[in-house]
Amino acid sequence: MKYFLKRSRLLLLLIILMAAGCKSNAVNPAYNPNELTLLIAASNDGEVGPCG
Amino acid sequence: MFKYPYVAENQKEQLMKVARAIVESYNLMGCKVMNVGTNDLAGDIGFIMEMQQNANYPFISANTKDAATDKFLFEPYSIIEIQGKTLGFVGVTVGDDRLKSFIFTDPVDAAQKAIEAIKDKVDLVFLMANVDDKTEKRLTAEVKDIDFLIRSKTGALQRIPREQDGTVVIRIGKQGKYAGVLKITNVDDVSTMKNVSSQYTRIKFADNRLNALAKGVKEGETLEEHFVGDENRLKLIARLRAERKTNVDLIQQLKNTYYLEPIPLNEKIADSPGVAAIVKDYMPVEKEKEDVKK
Q1: B1 touching chain A per CB within 8 A
Q2: Is B157 on the interface with A (CB under 8 A)?
Q3: How many CB pairs under 8 A join A and B?
Q4: How far is B229 from chain A (nearest CA, A)?
Q5: CA neighbor of B149 nearest in space, from B103, B191, B182
Q6: What's the pTM?
Q7: Could you give the ipTM of this predicted complex?
Q8: Which of A2, A22, A31 sits opposite B29 (nearest CB)?
Q9: DSSP of B246-287, one letter per residue?
Q10: Helix or strand run (H / E) with residue B135
Q11: Cα–Cα distance, B35 to B44 (Å, whole number)
């Protein structure tokens, strides 16, 4: 992964989104059933989101 | 999809392959919308239209026109239903004179017009802004009814989003090294957005400490049972549980709260096998190595 990250900034955009994969569980979603979770990625190009 | 708003002729084929791989990857990830940034147009009209056709998600831009026809090339916005809420996404880009096939109308006017069209149909308005700092300031100062402005074309990563003219500005840039997980709770139409980062931080801190204490605890046994007789530990556990509950209750009671967590995309994040395969296919050096091995 690190190798790919170092390859180029252009490819970074691709790799990051692959890695994120909409699976972050860093914060327990059980805190609140009225909670929306969006994954956002932005770079020097356009933005994508939400994902998952 | 491209690093600059132009493509050198001798690199064109390779860079277009990469752009195709990016769209293919976004499809696999289930992306819901993409704002077409100025650099995304470097492959010219035919190529961006091909990319749009290949994508399973909409390309949006409220201010990008075909110079030959003077017609807008993309939908100005996209409305998405998530977890019972309706979210509106509007896209604008700053443009570049080197892109001769395109005309870019004023992002501020375009954003306002698109937001006017959706604001009564959605619970939250997101403006995806591929703009410079000066235009970002104009957007927050002049465009009404934006809840979140998601900024690209910036190297800045702001861990705690800024509030500017009543709009929450999210900058999660820095060469794509981070993705942002944005949590929004108890959406209503009247309350202003409130940042609850400190509450989430305290909850995470309490969870981490409680998890650390739970190491070595038998299955089915509570922390209190495990540390019975250890007054100091029992006091600590009680304090952590109380602190966690206080912060959870506060988040549940408040309306329109948000929390942004930047996720560093490092080796700790597992690669998705499907996307990893696409990357491999489009990495010429890696592919050559593979071919040599075979």
Answers
A1: yes
A2: no
A3: 216
A4: 31
A5: B182
A6: 0.81
A7: 0.77
A8: A22
A9: HHHHHHHHSSSEEEEEEEE-STTSPPPHHHHHHHHHH-HHHH
A10: helix B133-142
A11: 16
pLDDT tens-digit readout, B193-229:
899 988 988 999 999 999 999 998 888 899 999 999 9
For residue B196, give Cα distances in angstroms to A13, A42, B134, B200: 29, 22, 28, 6
* Nearest chain B CA: its distance from A6 CA (Å): 11
How many helices and strands in chain A, by DSSP H and E?
Answer: 2, 2
Residue in chain B closest to A12 (alpha carbons) equals B176
Characterise B117 by phi-psi region: left (phi > 0), alpha (psi -120 to 50), beta (else): alpha
- Tokens 């500005």 correspond to B169
Which two three-digit tokens encode residue A14? 């691709």
B104 contacts in chain A (CB < 8 Å):
none
H or E segment at B206?
helix B197-213
Order of strands across the sheet that contains A35-42: B59-60, B34-35, A47-48, A35-42, B178-185, B257-264, B194-195
Which pLDDT band holds residue B88 (cuts at 50, 70, 90)? Answer: very high
pLDDT digits (tens, 9 = 90+) for B101-113: 999 999 999 999 9
Judge whether A31 is closer than 8 Å to chain B, CB to CB. yes
CA distance A30 to chain B (A): 10
Nearest CA in chain B to A14: B22
A6 CB neighbours in chain B (<8 A) are none
Q: d(Cα B149, Cα B79) in Å, to the nearest integer?
A: 16
Question: Higher confidence at residue A3 or residue B138?
Answer: B138
Residues B250-288 have pLDDT tens digits of 988 898 999 998 888 888 888 888 888 888 887 666 556
> Which residue shows structure tokens 């501020």?
B108
A25 to chain B, any CB pair closer than 8 A? The answer is no
Q: For residue B126, which phi and psi values (nearest 5 degrees)?
A: -110, 125
